[in-house]
Amino acid sequence: MTDHTHAAHPSTTESGGSAADAAFWDARYAEKTQIWSGQPNAVLVQEVSDLDPGTALDLGCGEGADAVWLARRGWRVTAVDISQVALDRAAGHAADAGVADRIEFLRCDLGETFPDGQFDLVCAQFLHSPTDMPREEILRSAAAAVAPGGDLLIAGHAKFPEGAHEDHHDMHLPTPQEVLESLGLPDGEWEVLLSDEHERVHTWNDGTSVTRTDNALRVRRR
Ligand SMILES: C[S@@+](CC[C@H](N)C(=O)[O-])C[C@H]1O[C@@H](n2cnc3c(N)ncnc32)[C@H](O)[C@@H]1O
């Protein structure tokens, strides 16, 4: 298990872009009492079930289903999001699941600040935003936060599913290879454990289903 602190570097500003982006996501979450399925992401379950628990950092944790799943399996989780509305909801789910003491929820705009420390697992599940979020830069910080022997797991949409929020539709969705290249990992220091694109049926929380094409990249720091 890796030691890490739970502080974020001080935010450079709480106004302008950061405040507007937070307001955008707060408004999205406030539209409904639940946006996401409440279930952990399938790629997380597939890739992490066999790992020994340690410390985990969940970037863009949303309503907290992944963080709660990890905590239930014994991980100590730092779960970060720009939206206080999402974090409050996630904290409620953690309390309901009896794992509140294993998760620290931290509000920060990852485009401006990044949690200190190193983690055995850093995950970014569908860290997409129609705001000006600097995803590549955030993912490079995510790689830097992986402890030796630890994993970085990134899942993303390969295509936006029918029914996805229309604001997202003009966004470039990188392939796993593009994500890997953008990380700029030093040669020989990382091992690629997963790089794939897959289709699966996704059920929205109103009960309707769509076929999604997602992709995933998992790399391990040697
Ligand atoms: C598409 S949702 C995915 C949520 C969750 N990971 C999941 O798979 O259900 C993207 C999340 O990223 C968060 N987010 C967007 N921009 C962010 C930023 N700049 N810093 C931190 N979180 C951000 C949003 O609030 C939202 O919860």
From TrEMBL:
SUPFAM superfamilies for this protein: S-adenosyl-L-methionine-dependent methyltransferases
InterPro entries attached to this UniProt entry: Methyltransf_25, SAM-dependent_MTases_sf
Keyword list, A-Z: Methyltransferase, Transferase
GO biological process: methylation
EC class name: transferase
GO molecular function annotations of the record: methyltransferase activity
E.C. designation(s): 2.1.1.-
CDD domains for the chain: AdoMet_MTases (cd02440)
Domain Methyltransferase: 57-150
Protein name listed in UniProt: SAM-dependent methyltransferase
Lineage of source species: Bacteria, Bacillati, Actinomycetota, Actinomycetes, Streptosporangiales
